[in-house]
Amino acid sequence: MDNIAIVWFRNDLRLHDNEMLCEAIKKATSIIPVYVFDERLFWGKTSFGFEKISNFRTKFIIESVLDLQKNIRDKGGDLIIRIGKPEDEVFEIAKQTKSSFVYCNRERTEQEVFVQDRLEHNLWTLGQELRFARGKMLYYTADLPFPISQVPDIFTNYRKEVENIVPLRDALSAPQSIPFPITELDRGEVPTLKTFGKNDVTSCHLENSKFKGGETEAKNQLNYYLWESHLIDTYKETRNDLMGWDFSSKLSAWLSSGCLSPKYVIAEKNRYEKEVTKNESTYWLYFEILWRDFFRLMGKKYGNKIFKLNGIRNVEPANNTDVELFSKWASGNTGIPFIDANMRQLNDTGFMSNRGRQNVASFLVKDLKMNWIMGAEYFESLLIDYDPCSNYGNWNYIAGVGADPKEDRYFNVMSQAKRYDANGEFIKYWIPALE
Ligand SMILES: Cc1cc2nc3c(=O)[nH]c(=O)nc-3n(C[C@H](O)[C@H](O)[C@H](O)COP(=O)(O)OP(=O)(O)OC[C@H]3O[C@@H](n4cnc5c(N)ncnc54)[C@H](O)[C@@H]3O)c2cc1C
């Protein structure tokens, strides 16, 4: 008898190192891969009324799903597409196909947990199980030398207890083939930006053309950054730059959507160190990806606190919600060129450098004394690489409500601009009137 497993793709839009897919193939005779465009995200608003997902990220996700569909078809399978609520859509497919169980990657943040819990309850009514797999982090929680409740709140302490101690697991290979059942199931169609009432991306900066969604493009960028250009050799020196494509890895959007596995990135970095060069810069890529794991662990340890004004430290930050002042910041019209240039880059491309993010966030909270959640939600809406733990974790940090050992961290915008944009190249690019 055909033993069907549904594989529900979420923020894991890849075939390589995909634990849930490998598990499902081991346990079932055929697989139904599914992706659901969640109507609450693609049509939804944040609590301050911003679009939950801008056209930049929507486009990136659509491209990623199309690439996933092609890659699955190349392996003999197919990807079922739905628009709606995953807990209803996946449930309906399970009912219709009389599947045996459903696999997904376990998420840990409020909205994502809500959806997976509802689906699990729905499946119970069919006598089916929702089986969880892992795949977000570089390290498995089970391999860490401390329980989640004891994860050090200070990054350096966390890093010292992990690096060179916890063994890195191998990234799993993509399956050879994906057996698909004979079924009448409607395959569905991948939507377009228009489906969600979103505008096409019309700006044509470097970031607009280079951030193309999908596992194929993800591997191309990793390949470019390491093996083709050797840019990784100087990463530590360039990573705080602002202009162009090459100063940092630009892997974030592919990591956030799961087109790329962090284990695979670090395995490639390790291979590069063996075969080409090993130096402080090559190490530093690992160091930054550890930050990503760290914020995910903070999210696990503190749960919803990372989304609350008082954060994980329960302190009282600034709380101005003046809409006019906020929209000057958001639209890049504060009159402070370094802030405005960065915000205009975000508004036009969905991307901003790490240095830029730190400065505009600090300016909003520490100089304008605004409620940091407004800024975090604005980033959530626009960032092409939005990830709940990385975004809210970093905002917690800068707002002084997070895991930061340094009390009152402050970025002096003027001196930062002088240091990182000494000849004003970045400012002039984004605000040509200042030429
Ligand atoms: C206020 C604020 C909000 C942020 N929001 C997000 C977000 O929603 N999603 C996101 O992926 N990153 C976020 N970051 C972290 C960081 O700015 C981006 O990961 C980075 O700029 C992406 O560019 P890159 O891939 O070239 O990074 P690289 O410098 O090449 O770093 C390599 C990878 O390490 C990880 N990384 C690097 N720095 C951080 C960091 N501080 N925190 C967590 N992971 C890190 C990313 O996955 C990144 O792709 C935020 C930072 C700040 C200050």
Word description of this protein:
This protein is 47% helix and 7% strand. It is built from 19 helices and five strands. α5 links the parallel β4 and β5. α15 (354-367) crosses α17 (388-399). Flavin-adenine dinucleotide is lined by residues 239, 248-252, 255-256, 285, 288-289, 291-292, 295, 353-354, 357-358, 361, 379, 383, 385-387, 390-391, 394-395, 398.
Query: Counting H and I runs of at least 4 residues, what is the number of helices?
Result: 19
Proportion of residues in β-strands:
5-15%
Number of strands: 5
Low-confidence stretches: none
Give every kind of bound small molecule, once each: flavin-adenine dinucleotide
Helix content: 40-55%
Mean pLDDT: 96
**What is the element string, with H for helices and E for strands?**
EHEHHEHEHEHHHHHHHHHHHHHH
Overall structural class, as computed from helix and strand content, comes to alpha/beta
Distance between the termini: 71 Å
Characteristic terms for this protein:
435 residues, 19 helices, binds flavin-adenine dinucleotide, 3 domains, alpha/beta, DNA Cyclobutane Dipyrimidine Photolyase, subunit A, domain 3, Rossmann fold, Serine Threonine Protein Phosphatase 5, Tetratricopeptide repeat, five-stranded parallel beta sheet, 5 strands
